[in-house]
Amino acid sequence: xxxxxxHIYLDSQATTSVDPQxxxxxxxxxxxxxxxxxxxxxxxxxEADKAVESARATLAAGIGAKSREILFTxxxxxxxxxxxxxxxxxxxxxxxxxxxxxxxxxxxxxxMQALENDGWKITCLEVDExxxxxxxxxxxxxxENTVLVSIMHGNNEVxxxxxxxxIGAICREAGVLFHCDATQTFGKMPLDVEAxxxxxxxxxxxxxxxxxGVGLLYVRRRNPRVRxxxxxxxxxxxxxxxxxxxxxxxxVGLAKxxxxxxxxxxxxxxxIQELRNLLETKLFxxxxxxxxxxxxxxxxxxxxxxxxxxxxxxSLIMGMPDIAVSSGSACTSAxxxxxxxxxxxGVGDDLAHSSLRFGIGxxxxxxxxxxxxxxxxxxxNRLRDMSPLWEMDQEGIDLSTVQWAGH
Amino acid sequence: xxxxxxxxxxxxxxxxxxSMDKDAADVGTGVVGAPECGDVMKLQIQVEDGVxxxxxxxxxxCGSAIASSSLATEWLKGRxxxxxxxxxxxxxxxxxxxxxxxxxxxxxxxxAIKQAIADYQTKQxx
Lengths: 407, 126
Description:
The complex is a heterodimer. Chain A is of the alpha/beta class. Chain A has two domains: 8-12 and 265-393, Aspartate Aminotransferase, domain 1 (Alpha-Beta Complex), CATH 3.90.1150; 20-260, 3-Layer(aba) Sandwich (Aspartate Aminotransferase, domain 2), CATH 3.40.640.10. Chain A has helices at 20-26, 43-62, 76-90, 106-117, 135-141, 164-174, 248-286, 313-318, 340-344, 349-352, 366-385, 388-394; strands at residues 8-9, 70-73, 97-101, 121-125, 146-150, 177-181, 200-204, 215-219, 290-293, 303-308, 323-324, 326-327, 355-359. Chain B is built from five helices and three strands; from the N terminus they run H-E-E-E-H-H-H-H. Chain B has helices at residues 5-12, 63-76, 81-84, 89-96, 103-125, and strands at residues 27-34, 39-48, 51-60. Chain B is globular, with a radius of gyration of 14 Å. At the A-B interface, helix 8 and helix 12 of A face strand 1, strand 2, strand 3, helix 2 and helix 5 of B.
């Protein structure tokens, strides 16, 4: 499978290309079968509705849920917003305290912030150096007025995977709703909302070789029945939880992408993990002063986040123009602030500025990994040759003792 | 990320990368920035009879920071110390077509030039 250009794509946590099988399944739903799934008066609508319900059943079964517990959204950001804002508003009379974690995606942290501005109380759990929260901290944070705990499954930046079943059990015992942002693990790791005591779960299609602009929110209907205040109002689609004409091609694509991922299953994940490990080994063998970010074992198979001491991430990316990776540092955006996830893990700002995230995907080949390793090693060595920090380190100067003239 | 061709050229073919003896009487050294800010620039000048005969740099930072310091060394060579102290960050911004978000790189380069000159001048007095 060729990537869209000669570039090597290693940013699978950002997005993935639509699998040709998925695309093929979606195509008839644009022109030939274009009906509105909400049209009850003709076959165009019936046909679309049938496809949507079939997709809903497939997706529900895949996570141990019932069809009626799946809501289709525009993606995981909307799902996270609906889960958090919807629960907070519905249960405001029960309590106005929510718990989340400092390394969550902004799609969770920002709605939490919005609630805090409106008078809710938010507890943001800290993480250790591997990006893991403490289950004891979680237990201690739950109060009488806590209504929701929102913790992600796999972290998008460093790949650390949280013990979701244990978190679910704690929440269930405490009688608090549990929302899990499973964007990075849906379709890739086993998810069972019953076994894991998950009450709300967000997922997206474009991380699993499906189209952009479609996702789902699982909302538990029994034991306990979760109620939501809608954030989007209109035609009362999705049982009133989420108004808006259903994205039929997208929904069909989401279900197909999930099916294809399930078929690939453990074999695909282990192939990806082997490539990830190969890249990791090559970089660690060839270079000194490199540091793994994220949990060494409990980590997404596709994810490799590394800090390269004494070089800056953006310049490193510039040195490999044919390779698509993400800089752990947000320098590439306008903020110039290093990653809040790495900061929360206690990674110093200097190393946070020098991190790269490699995301191995379905189409990544061993040859590509070898090319990437060579390119990265060359670029790091070249930049170190012109790095005053590397020079000082080689002279035996402890950089932490230097008085920097910051600006 | 839209880098200008000039930034890319300096990044790919940096001029005057290297180090001089910072203890030499005719060498002035400026080190500015901080690792936690994502940029550290070291700029050195060698001066003979009030004229900069050589300039070297080493930079930890983004492509624009590397380009700003590389360009600075190019401009410094052959200038008098007085004329070098008149180089402004806005000249660097203009030459490299730096976007607003990268202006701090040029500020850093100007600071490095000033610090290197100050270091040289301090050595001359002692």
